[in-house]
Amino acid sequence: MNLADQIHRLAEEIFPEVVAIRRHLHAHPELSKKEFQTAAYIASQLRQMEIPFQEGVAGTGLVALIEGENPGKRMIALRADMDALPIREENPVDYASQNPGVMHACGHDVHMASLLGAAKILHTLRDQFEGSIRLIFQPSEENYPGGASLMIKEGVLENPRPSAIFAQHVFPGLPAGKVGIRSGKYMASTDEIYLTVKGKGGHGGMPHTVIDPVLIASHIVVALQQIVSRRNKPSLPTVLSFGRFMADGRTNIIPSEVKLEGTIRTFDEDWRKQAHQLIREIAEGTARAMGGDCEVFIDPGYPFLANDERLADHFRAWAGEYLGTENVEELELAMTAEDFAWYAQILPACFYRLGVRNESKGLVSNLHTSTFNIDEEALRTGAGLMAYIAINQLGE
Fold first, then answer.
1. Residues 311-362: tens digit of each pLDDT
2. Residues 6 or more apart in contact with residue 193 via CB below 8 angstroms
3. Catalytic pick among 83, 109, 338, 339
4. Which of 127, 157, 183, 275 is deepest in the core (most CB within 10 A)?
């Protein structure tokens, strides 16, 4: 029996267990940096498998180790994130969130269950590969500065340094049973923009006596759009969006202050820094020209995520062997962001997508929505493919 057949058989055997793990995690979501019960549950699963691990990394993170033959020969890493989102779940399922206002709406329950399933397969097959596999269960992917950066600071990529790192993420744009990959640049950097526009408040019926921060802020939002449309190269994807405009006045009251919050995302570090400076210059200059002031704070977030070209090529080939080439899709650039990008700044990295959609079952909701759910058949792919990729990468 070849390796793919062995792993398919093992993935089928543990499938009910992986589903049960996913449902438990889905029913007990925890927010970023508060994944205490989640970590305890993962620890209990690793103990049952007799896989050694370290707890309390970057707060609630865990790092486990599976050693094959000649464990010092080579090491790779596999990562899953742990945190949930502040969303009230609306799925009519018996494993719906039991934590009001918190939900695994980004599929991190699937990531953890898949990695635990892969761990079980890899531990079973440990006499059939050489080298070691580090399992990273990472907290706080959804919260700046991202749990990846915190785990890196605590040495998760050292002693020894892995030669490569892989992670998967659920993707409702693909049917269950399929996966997606993109070589090179894939996901955007992301920075948060906070503007405070100050003027002079007063009566709405006497606008000549005020310096209207609502009007100033409106001009700033419009003026900043030229950063993308006129200052950026058309060939470089960039998004500048404002999602919050807070002017606490009334129908006849012009406030003294307005707050704006937004994001800028792109794929080039030099342009990213230049765009930050342009935001400051345009926002401050527009406010001054209209008699007011603007305080600018830009909170740097995750860098853009780039898949190592060679690892992506390997992934395509191995995923094709394991799933069939018809089930491996090419992905488009994404303006969403991922803190897995921190690992990719240090190691050759591969971040791929796991299809979870099933239209016939009505499982079509997008990520970060109250009705997001998956076709659990995807867990067969999630656990088995990750194990297959890990063993093949160790053999490279």
1. 999 999 999 999 999 999 999 999 999 999 999 999 999 999 999 999 999 9
2. 242, 260, 261, 262, 263, 264, 279, 296, 297, 298, 299
3. 83
4. 275
Mean pLDDT of the chain: 97
Considering only CA atoms, which of 114, 109, 16 is closest in space to residue 384?
114
Selected catalytic residue, list 30, 81, 141, 339: 141
CA angle 88, 92, 95 (to 5 degrees): 80
Residue 141 a catalytic site member = yes
Assess whether 313 carries a catalytic annotation.
no
Q: Is the pLDDT of residue 396 over 90?
A: no
H and E: helices and strands count for the chain: 10, 16
> What are the helix (H) ranges across the chain?
3-27, 36-49, 108-124, 147-153, 213-224, 226, 269-289, 309-323, 341-344, 378-394
CB atoms within 10 A of CB 41: 18
Query: What tokens were used for 45?
Result: 């699963």
